[in-house]
Design brief:
This protein has about 950 residues and is α/β, with parallel strands linked by helices. The strands form seven sheets. The chain has a six-stranded mixed β-sheet with strand order 3-2-1-4-5-6. A six-stranded mixed β-sheet has the order 9-12-11-10-13-14, with helices on both faces. The chain has a four-stranded antiparallel β-sheet with strand order 22-23-19-24. Among the domains are: about 5-255, 5'-nuclease (Rossmann fold); about 320-525, Ribonuclease H-like superfamily/Ribonuclease H (Nucleotidyltransferase, domain 5), CATH 3.30.420; about 550-655, Taq DNA Polymerase, Chain T, domain 4; about 725-800, no CATH class.
Length: about 950
């Protein structure tokens, strides 16, 4: 049976317009609706089984209905001003996508849809109307359904009855009685949908009801029907869709066709839709490149085409439609799924647990997916029927779950089989959970990491967000199955039918994402970045998190007590300086002391609260002016943060089972590819203050071991010299000279020998400041000099090193053209605000663009080193473990007897991690505590 898709264009337009924030082309033309419409239409066209498709628009506001009833839709407001110029552009989008576009003066889009629906059914075609408009529900019948794209849901006969209380053939009569305030259809006053439905059910149809209105027992209802009988008949004419519109475009012209790549690319370029353009070109490239693995959707499913065909193969990313999910409750069923995974060669895996902390959560069940739509859930630790009623299905007391040890035994070979790729979304979490059950997983792919490599920080990479973004699919949420707030239950108490739908969908979506994202990695030439930089990190970071780092609880407690005592002393000093008692922790009271009581200048009040601002910037400015009280408050706040964030918190975060702190590393958060650390964040412990160093002293090696810190020397400055191709700085690095002294000599024209330390300090401030786009104002504050003097230093720097100015301008232009910049190793760092209208945000984005290749390049280099180190240490017969990565520093734990050999291997691997036009230098230190090793 042929299948016709009819798309309600107006519904798509307004959905797109209201879904996206304002967006304009460089010439000022608004384009948010065009962008959203184009994206949605591309997805819809690709994500269906239709062989005929058309978008139907309203040609104008006046139709034959206005002749019947002049007030019809007369009170509707005009379209928003910024939407009006987008209407013709949206029609261009339809044409660029090679989709039929239909409209006709005098008739509404709904009439054209009704006409084409009738014609298609007469030809034996199936019809899907893409709309949730209630006016179109009268067309639903056998072979005709509505598709609500917002809810990803079909509306059939039962859906119409749910909406109107009557079947589709009686919808017109119900609407005639109830009217429609949105369209100004009068109806019968006082009668709503529910009452109208009951009346039509009782009397059969509108004509019979009006003829027998005098029999109605309720006096008010009887009279209003008698008084408004003509209004009801006119309303019926207004809501009845014409299915006989003359002279319409033939159905045969709606045959589905692929867009012409040149036409579509030209339109996307004209509209400045760069991300869509990259996607389209990538898909086209897939069609003409070496054929990739084909993915076949379920017969009842739907597929989103990623590439065209070549040698009869199609690359697809399947979007959820019909699914075949199975609850696996016996060993034979699990063996069947394991065999299917071995046969497929790729299996998606996900775990369900009792909590979010991978070090303490308990495994509840495992889901697997072997093909799009084919997934299962293996419950392992759901509560028994005796504990929770007949929750699990089957007879009370019946074995409804495979014993955990038996399930682990059945899965063990699959999870370590190197011929079967295991795919997860944030699979590092699952590795921790499975490790608790003695299970190892290799080899693996991570769809969260794939997404990050492709799109960076341009959007989030959670499964729910990616399913909406790529498949226009809303996944089942955790709260939907477990509740929220005080009534939320743990997953082991979820009934198995709900657990199956939720857990199996997770594995299913993960596998579909893998097919789609893997193709994009190839098409967009990001496969090398993924395979060499980010994919190896997943297993490596898992090992580091499992290892943890030993923390001395007694030392932390002593530090906490010391900080508390010093804070008490500072509070007394602060109150003495203030001349009165007040709460030092209260910003409001502090502001009143500084600006009302003491009358200090430079204060600013919040427009929202009217309170004085006492943030760090305000206090630092006052302290720099010589005021003692704000300086002491800054000291107090620094201690307070160290105590609450580190010493107090770290004591609680020592794992009682291991005696170690197990931080969590995230690799999909930052713009530049840097890793981040949380729970606890060990990357933010200050190292330039004595207090911060004291905290690091509390991190110690196990007995008989030492900690080894390996740190890149000035890696970001080396990258500046490399990417900007600054001959003088490159030579200085090759010669092993003091780079800040050389900079001072070049900029200020003084010899290196006998140089004033102040000049070197200024050169150092400029060297590091340039990387972050420092302004004259910022440099002046940092060095305590005038803005004019600071500007003179920066101008002199650019005059001596014009290559860096050229690099900065080149990089900003690259960001504006592409929306991203590249690191030396090829990572995309997205800069979303580079085209922003707000000058301050745009300037910030430009600074970020300049810095991203440098900071991102440093992150890539240390990842390369990390990926190479385990094998290098193993080959050298060394047993050291990598524990931490803190930006340019790596921390290892090694037996004392292997310390020197380990440091030698680590230094060699780090220095050979990348080939630059300047040498990479790594410095190592060894001690029993982290502070002494660094």
């Amino acid at each position: 049976m042929q299948h016709l898709f009819l798309i309600d264009g107006s519904g798509f337009i307004f959905r797109a317009y209201h879904a996206l924030p304002p967006l304009t082309r460089s010439d000022g033309t608004p384009t948010n609706a065009v962008s959203g419409f184009t994206s949605m239409l591309m997805k819809l066209v690709e994500d269906n089984t239709a062989d005929h498709i058309a978008v139907i628009f309203d040609a104008g506001r006046r139709t034959f209905r206005n002749d019947l009833y002049p007030e019809y839709k007369a009170h509707r407001p005009p379209a928003p001003e910024d939407l009006i110029p987008q209407f013709p552009l949206i029609r261009q989008a339809v044409q660029a996508l090679n989709v039929a576009c239909v409209e006709m003066e005098g008739f509404e889009a709904d009439d054209l849809i009704a006409t084409y629906t009738r014609q298609a059914r007469e030809k034996g075609m199936k019809v899907t109307i893409v709309s949730s408009d209630k006016d179109l529900m009268q067309l639903v019948t056998d072979g005709v359904e509505l598709w609500d794209a917002m809810k990803n849901k079909a509306i059939n006969r039962d859906g119409v009855i749910e909406k109107f209380g009557v079947p589709p053939e009686k919808v017109v009569d119900v609407q005639a009685l109830a009217g429609d305030s949105a369209d100004n259809v009068p109806g019968v006053p006082g009668i709503g949908i529910k009452t109208a439905a009951q009346l039509i059910e009782d009397y059969g149809d509108l004509d019979t009801l009006l003829a027998r209105a005098g029999e109605i027992k309720q006096p008010k209802r009887r009279q209003t029907l008698l008084d408004n009988a003509e209004a009801a008949r006119i309303s019926r004419q207004l809501v009845t869709l014409r299915d006989d519109v003359p002279g319409v475009q033939p159905l045969e012209t709606f045959a589905k066709a692929l867009p012409e790549i040149d036409t579509l690319s030209a339109f996307l370029e004209e509209m400045e839709f760069r991300r869509l353009l990259v996607t389209v070109r990538g898909r086209h490239q897939a069609a003409v490149s070496e054929p990739m693995q084909a993915t076949t959707a379920l017969d009842a499913g739907k597929a989103l085409t990623v590439g065209g065909s070549r040698s009869g193969q199609t690359v697809t990313a399947t979007a959820p439609a019909a699914t075949a999910y199975e609850l696996v409750q016996d060993a034979d069923s699990l063996r069947r799924w394991v065999a299917a995974a071995h046969s497929a060669g790729v299996v998606a895996i996900d775990t369900e647990t009792t909590g979010l902390d991978p070090m303490t959560a308990t495994l509840v069940g495992i889901s697997l997916a072997t093909a799009p739509g084919h997934a299962c859930y293996i419950p392992l630790r759901h509560v028994s029927p005796q504990d929770q009623g007949d929750l699990l299905g089957g007879a009370p007391g019946a074995p409804t779950q495979i014993p955990v040890a038996e399930a682990a035994g059945l899965l063990r070979d699959l999870l370590t089989d190197r011929s079967v790729l295991k795919v997860g979304h944030n699979i590092k979490y699952d590795l921790h959970i499975l490790a608790r059950e003695g299970l190892t997983v290799t080899p693996l792919d991570d769809t969260m990491v794939m997404s990050y490599v492709l799109d960076g920080a341009s959007h989030g990479h959670g499964m729910d967000e990616l399913a909406r973004l790529h498949f226009d699919h809303d996944t089942i949420k955790f709260e939907d199955v477990c509740g929220k707030g005080k009534t939320q239950i743990t997953f082991d108490r979820v009934p198995l039918d709900k657990a199956l739908a939720y857990a199996a969908e997770d594995a299913d979506i993960t596998l579909r994402l893998h097919h789609y994202l893997k193709a994009r990695l190839f098409n967009e030439r990001m496969l090398t970045v993924y395979e060499t930089l980010d994919r190896p990190m997943v297993s490596l970071l898992f090992d580091m998190e499992e290892a943890g780092i030993r923390a001395d609880a007694a030392a932390l407690l002593a530090l906490s007590e010391d900080f508390a005592a010093r804070m008490t002393d500072l509070e007394a000093e602060i109150r003495t300086l203030a001349g009165e008692e007040f709460n030092v922790a209260s910003p409001k009271q502090l502001g009143e002391i500084l600006f009302d009581r003491m009358g200090l200048k430079g204060g600013k009040k919040s427009a929202k609260t009217g309170a004085w601002s006492t943030d760090a910037e305000v206090l630092e400015t006052l302290a720099a002016e010589g005021h003692a009280l704000p300086a002491r408050v800054l000291d107090w706040r620094a201690l307070q943060k160290l105590k609450s964030t580190y010493t107090d918190a770290l004591i609680k975060q020592i794992n009682p089972r291991t005696g170690r702190v197990h931080t969590s590393f995230a690799q999909t958060i930052t713009t530049t590819g840097r890793l981040s650390s949380s729970d606890p964040n060990l990357q933010n412990i200050p190292i330039r203050t004595e207090e911060g160093r004291k905290i690091r002293r509390a991190f110690v090696a196990a007995p008989g071991h030492v900690l080894i810190s390996a740190d890149y020397s000035q890696v970001e400055l080396r990258l500046v010299a490399h990417v900007a191709d600054i001959a003088a700085l490159k030579q200085a690095f090759h010669d092993g000279q003091d780079i800040h002294a050389i900079t001072a000599a070049q900029v200020f024209g003084v010899p290196v020998d006998g140089m004033d330390p102040m000049l070197r300090r200024r050169a150092k401030a400029i060297n590091f400041g340039i990387i972050y786009g420092i302004s004259a104002f910022g440099l002046a504050r940092q060095l305590g000099i005038s803005n004019g003097e600071a500007k003179g230093f920066i101008d002199a720097y650019f005059a001596r090193f014009p290559e860096i100015k050229a690099y900065m301008e080149r990089t900003k232009a690259e960001a504006r053209d592409n929306g991203y910049v590249l690191t030396p190793l090829g990572r995309k760092c997205f800069i979303p605000e580079i085209q922003g209208k707000n000058p301050a945000m745009r300037a910030f984005a430009e600074r970020a663009a300049i810095n991203a290749p440098i900071q991102g390049g440093a992150a890539d280099i240390i990842k390369k080193a990390m990926a190479a180190l385990p094998a290098a240490l193993h080959e050298a017969g060394l047993s050291a473990r990598m524990l931490l990565q803190v930006h340019d520093e790596l921390v290892f734990e090694a037996p004392e007897t292997e310390a020197d050999a380990t440091a030698t291997v680590v230094k060699r691997v780090m220095e050979q991690a990348a080939i630059l036009s300047v040498p990479l230098i790594a410095e190592t230190g060894t001690a029993t505590s982290w502070a002494e090793a660094h």
